[in-house]
Amino acid sequence: MSIHSTLAAIACVAVLSACAGAPPAPPVPAPPTLAALLAQAEAALAARQEARAIGILKQATLAFPREKAPWLRAAQVSFDCHQYGEAITFAQAALERDPDDIKAHSIAAVSGLRVSSQALRDLAHKNNVTGPVKTEAQQLAKLLRTSIGGDIIVPVKRPLPRQPALKPRVADEDDPFRLLREDMARNGSAAK
Predict the structure, then answer these.
(1) CA distance 178 to 191
(2) Which pTM does this prediction carry?
(3) Contact of 93 with 61, CB cutoff 8 Å
(4) Residue 108 contacts by C-beta under 8 Å, 6 or more apart in sequence?
(5) Of the candidates 108, 109, 115, which has an alpha carbon nearest to the alpha carbon of residue 148?
(6) Burial of 32 per CB tally in 10 Å (0-12, 13-18, 19+)
(7) How would you write the pLDDT of the chain (192 residues) with one tens digit per residue?
(8) What is the DSSP secondary structure assignment for residue 67, as one 8-state letter?
(9) Which of 95, 8, 85 lies closest to 54, judged by CA?
(10) Taking the CB of residue 40, how many other CB atoms lie within 10 A of it?
(11) Quick check: 120 and 129 in contact, CB under 8 A?
């Protein structure tokens, strides 16, 4: 055996022994399922950690972009937290995945109304509801009245008119049924 072949054999043995001695790489954990992420979000909500729940739901939307469920749940949580702009965004994303979802339509519509109402209140407070803004607000109010089927969007509380006090009626001691006969006579029936 020549020196070259001996060195080659030693190098092969060294390489093979180095591979055999290396520990195996730890297994890569499987990514969480949609159900697991939704369960984590619900657990965060139960612990009153709304911001954490929204973060988990956003993670679910990234991991499962075609699924409607995380978008819709994020819309509902945002709405419940009075984050109407985010609620609209999440609801519209849910509607892209299911255009017939009534809950997503409702969240988007009511959130939009809440944002609009606040903006109009702010403008009215500054006495700046004039011109095209006022006209458009009036048109929207008319559309709302038509949509919900009423003339009044926000009921006005008015005091009830005062009723005159009724005089107490007392029955005759001799005829305890006189009041009953009088009432029947006024109503068109005759007492027998």
Answers:
(1) 10
(2) 0.58
(3) yes
(4) 75, 87, 88, 91, 92, 95
(5) 109
(6) middle
(7) 566 666 566 666 555 555 555 567 778 787 889 999 999 999 999 999 999 999 999 999 999 999 999 999 999 999 999 999 999 999 999 999 999 999 999 999 889 888 887 877 777 777 656 667 667 777 777 776 676 666 554 444 556 566 555 555 554 555 555 666 666 666 665 444
(8) -
(9) 85
(10) 18
(11) yes
CA distance 88 to 94: 10
d(CA 57, CA 42): 10
Separation of alpha carbons 62 and 65, rounded Å: 5
Instruction: Give the C-alpha distances (Å, rounded to integers) separating 113 from 46, 88, 91, 128, 145.
Output: 28, 11, 14, 19, 13
Q: What are the structure tokens assigned to 52, written together? A: 């954490």
Q: Which residue bears the tokens 């060195």? A: 7
What are the tokens at 101?
């979802």
Name every residue whose Cβ is closer than 8 Å to that of residue 44 and which is 6 or more positions away in sequence.
Answer: 50, 52, 53, 56
